[in-house]
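Bug report (template v2)

What were you trying to do?
Predict the complex of my protein with LD2JLWAY.

What happened?
Run completed; filing so the output is reviewed.

Input:
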Amino acid sequence: MNPSLTNPRVLLGVNIDHVATLRQARGTRYPDPVQAAILAEEAGADGITIHPREDRRHIQDRDVLLLKEILTTKMNLEMAVTDAMLAFAEQVRPECVCLVPEKREELTTEGGLDVDGQEARVARACERLTRIGAEVSLFIDPDIAQIDAAVRCGAPVVELHTGEYAEADTPQAEDAAFATLVTAVEHARKRGLIVNAGHGLHYHNTERVAAIGGINELNIGHAIIARAVFSGLKEAVRDMKAILAGARG
Ligand SMILES: CC(=O)[C@@H](O)[C@H](O)COP(=O)(O)O
Ligand SMILES: NCC(=O)COP(=O)(O)O
């Protein structure tokens, strides 16, 4: 059995895209996401998540290749389901790949990948990535039909999109989105999947999600990098780790 299925603590994947966003905003050589990854790992990150977008608006190929050389935890490469990105993953050979939907004009990822609606294409991508030894994850909405489609595609992992929960604008809407998330985690676990989650999680809404039994890993980026502006990255990572550690008693 994969050890992550029995892990009593929730793992933290730190998404460092936003460090690259700041660098690209001015076309400078700093801040360097590679340096961010080193600090995040030193502060206890269990993995580093990056999403080289097709338009390369933040993470660059150079970042991915250097990170592959220096990471001591694992690389979680988020990417669109395209031939070009699959070929890039085959070149990089990351430990984990998370397939995500991508729209050129979006500010950040909107909604989960429609696995149910393009099963053959996603299944082929899963097969290609599994062949290079990557653990494949599908970034999907907390939806039963999408979870079942992920199982049919042969992905061992799903990452449930927490955006609806994180962006809820009333306590009632937040509770409803949370209940949907819990149902989805339970269903995915029953179907034998490793369950990760992420998107929009921050220092005030993460504990509740981390407390859901069956969640293996949370991927968090924007909130950690934003806090790092004031506290430094190591402290920001440690603060989030403390929330995860406290969530399950
Ligand atoms: C999949 C997800 O929710 C985020 O990791 C997102 O893909 C990050 O990408 P951006 O940094 O471009 O928003
Ligand atoms: N997969 C979700 C992720 O990596 C982090 O997203 P966010 O915390 O930057 O919204």
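What did the reviewer find?
The domain at 3-247 is CATH 3.20.20.70 (TIM Barrel). The chain is about 45% helix and 15% strand.
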